[in-house]
Each structure stands twice: as C-alpha cells, then as structure tokens.
Amino acid sequence: MDEGEINEGEGAITVSERAIISRLCAIINDERAIIGLNEQNNFSSASLNSNNTLI
Predict the structure, then answer these.
(1) Mind listing the pLDDT tens digit for each residue in 5-43?
(2) Is position 35 within any domain?
C-alpha cells in the first residue's frame, strides 16, 4: 500500500482525495440546508387570496 492510500489495490483513494470528497459532500449538504430554509421562508410568507389560492 502506497503512503496515504485508504485501501490497497486498484481503485484505492488517497487521504487527500478522500478529504476533497468529504469537503464536497459538506458543501452540498450546506447548500441543501440553505435551499430548505429558503423554501420554508417562501411558504411561510405565502398567503391565500379570496379564492383560497396561494399567492
């Protein structure tokens, strides 16, 4: 096993590659949380018109 590899053999990823993947996953999760908050805010600010239709 080479220095810094997680697994032996073909397809092994290095520690730095794994760190990059982990960071990308964290960024994606942050973005999902932000999108979720925006959707909640949009819904809570919605109101009904006289026909009970969301506006």
Answers:
(1) 556 677 788 889 999 999 999 999 999 888 887 777 666
(2) yes
